Amino acid sequence: MLHRAEEPRYRTVPLALPQGGWVVTYFPHRGIIPGVGPDAGSDADTGRVAGPGAGGMVARPGLSGRLGGPARVTVVSAPPGSGKTVLLRSWIGQAGLADRAGWVPVGRSERDPQQFWLSVLAALRGTAPGSGLVRAVTAAPDLDGWAIVERLLTDLAPLEDRLWLVIDDVHELGPAEALRQLELLVMRAPPDLRFVLATRHDVRLGLHRLRLEGELTEIREPDLRFTVDEARELFDAAGVKLPDPALLVERTEGWAAGLRLAALSLAGHPDPARFAAEFSGSERTVADYLLAEVLERQSQEVRRLMLRTSVLERVNGELADLLTGSRGGERVLQDLEAANAFVVALDSRRSWFRYHHLFADLLQLELRRAAPGGVAGLHQAASAWFAAHGYPVEAVRHAQAAQDWRLAARLLADHWPGLHLDGQAATVHELLAGFPADLAAADAELASLLAADELAQGSLEAAERYLGLAERGPASVVADRREHVQVLLGVVRLLLARQRGNPAAVVDEARRLQAMAHAAEAEQPGRCEELRALALISLGTAEFWTAASEDGNRHLKQGVALARQIGRPYLEFTGLAYQAVTALDRSYARAVEYARQAIELARRHGWTDDPAAGVACVLLGAALAWRGRPEEAEPWVQRAERTLRAGAEPAAVVGLHYVRGVLELVRHRDADALAAFRAAEPLAGRLAAPHYLFPRTRSLLVQALVRLGGTERAERALAELGEQDRERGEIRIAIAALRLAQDDPHAATVALAPVLNGCTPIVHQGTPLAHAFILEAIARDTLGDAGAAGRALERALDLAEPDGALSPFLLNPAPGLLERHARHGTAHAALIAEILSLLAGQAPAPPTGPPPPLEALSDSEIRVLRYLPTNLTAPEIASELYVSRHTVKTHMRNLYAKLGTHRRADTVARARALGLLAPSSLKGQAKLAG
């Protein structure tokens, strides 16, 4: 026997393995450690890991750093093939610990406690710090593990250098006595002895005390998962060219062995991308590994549970008992999860579980081999359980997997209203795609659902075709299902009428639907209120798009309030988005508030791709564009363009084209604006009633032509209109702009007169009326009537000031007129300074960010707030609003309280800072009336 000084420290041997080369180092008493030693030094120094079958190495410095951290004990607990052993060996090499780390592998055939402790002694004696401290022990029949531990503790008491004891496969330690002995060593070891324990599942070592003391580091399966970048490095090192390994990482869930086995199979494969897309747990190399390392290690009872529950995407104890016909399923699942047997807990209570994707593939393959005739029955039993326990989506999926199409259709039809009201259109679309294509013609319920799906996907024509099939089918429906089919048809008709912009049809369908809902209230409590909220929101939407009426706003407000009351956030979100549009012409601040509430609900619930989210984005883009902030508006408009589809929401898309056109006009991109306005016009044929924005769109189209120098084309565009349309206020504004471009200011004033004196009203006056007054001011100034010009300009500023609607002044620039007006006295000096700054090409002031929380302002308070920046007194504001002076004073006091101010000027400044009023330049602040 060699003395310690004469023993070789290591001997490096290159081994050629079928799976790929290893640099292997032999350490006396510690066995073989791949990738460690002088010949592997260049790799070890960079913290790179050699992997079987990879033909290369992958850097994982983050994990290596945690292994060498300050904790006394590090546990690496993960399923087989997770890369535990390779990680530990790599870390030893990377950190240069070959002389200070004792490695003890616990094999399945080495469960003898005496042999384990002899291995521990040998490993520690093979290290530089332990060689002079740990005494040799000779094997003997009566050698006691407790005595060895006590002797070790005595030997290591003087230890002053850091020493690591690395024990691999701790779970293989047989008798509980060996674990208790190891626990004693861990708890009483000197501070410089560190432990690294690798295991497939947690073992009873009393480590909870170390966890509480901060002396325990735990590296678990999620930590060991390979990232996409690490997988790419692994494949590159193996000589496999796979440009995007993300799909394989998803399928393997980052499982190291799965990725390495995939790399083996991919080497030389003619179509790596196709292989990656089809890679599964039934692939031969993966299946062999999982069979040997996981499935065959289980008892017959556990294997049966695994196979029969593999048809489920998630399983709990009750379901497992149902499908196996036995008891104790929850305990088995919990034990499997604790043992890292490719079973993952889905909740903190550990009541729901799923199988690793690749393991589920293998189990399903084995189930088809063992019991091919029983799979459909398992799916049917699962479908019934999920339906009875309130999980309709999973119930439908299992009925489809069993190819029980009648059951699947009935389940989906029963639960579709709830799914729709929860905003799960994408889920319904996926479920419908799972039915045979020819089934709809024979099933009225399914045809109804397909009609609703086509509405959501953007094809009104296809929706109408399916609706026709459904309406011809109820006679073939069994008697106890006919009433439900009529409710389905009523909802689809209501949605179709809303999207067609047909308020009369919406009213009729809403009444019929609510009558049916009242009749069914006893069987489905709450359904009546849900359908009433849906009807109110649909009615308000259709009324607004076609008439921009106050009724639309009122119905939307009622619908949103009811949706909140009954706890339907999707209905609330939809109503808020359209309520924002109805509020825009009365109060930018209120409209923006509604839109932001809608977008926040969409973000929270995953509805950002819903058309209603696009409507809210249009509103925010419009508010910013009219305030002269096109760069801030652009991202919102782009989001809306990605979300809204003309086939699904033609009325909303008209609004989108209109806002895009305004945005381009503000940017002086007149040709792009013209294209946007023209894109809106063909949508008129898709709506049952005229859209209220069409006159505005045509008006701005004419003005875009004028700005492009096409006065003759503008004349032709006007000539195409009927006489009644030419008399609309919006069109008269366009005529005035054309006459000014033709140097005929008198004709411009004639065109504007009915608009300005109220004989020709404009729907939701606001910005369009300010537009009319600025054109009147320009015309009067050109005619030499300075007084009339000043009065018209001041009125335009009055209308623009509350919301900072600068677009009329940017579309019809008159800097000279504005400068003269500022010198001769105005209540809007700050607003004029802002306009002149933008006309001079200066960027608007940066946004102040989202406003801090404040008590919500009422609609009446918002209306009073809009007048505070002007010189109007409280009685004059009361006159403008048709309310009493006392009411105005009360609202002003409320504003002071809610905004935390004491004076009118401070209130205006605070409101601007919060985004409730348009921001203004600090120069030339208006002198406010007290």
Please provide a written account of the structure.
The protein starts with 10 loop residues before the first strand and ends in a 17-residue tail after the last helix. Helix 27 packs parallel to helix 29 (569-583) and helix 38 (729-741) runs parallel beside helix 40 (766-782). Among the domains are: 4-224, P-loop containing nucleotide triphosphate hydrolases (Rossmann fold), CATH 3.40.50; 228-279, no CATH class; 859-913, Orthogonal Bundle (Arc Repressor Mutant, subunit A), CATH 1.10.10.10. It has 930 residues and is α/β, with parallel strands linked by helices. The chain is 60% helix and 6% strand. Helix 7 (176-188) links the parallel strand 8 (163-168) and strand 9. It has a five-stranded parallel β-sheet, sandwiched between helices. It has a three-stranded antiparallel β-sheet with strand order 1-2-3. A three-stranded antiparallel β-sheet has the order 11-13-12. It contains 48 helices and 13 strands.
Question: Notable features of this structure?
Answer:
930 residues; alpha/beta; Rossmann fold; Arc Repressor Mutant, subunit A; five-stranded parallel sheet; three-stranded antiparallel sheet; 13 strands; elongated; disordered C terminus
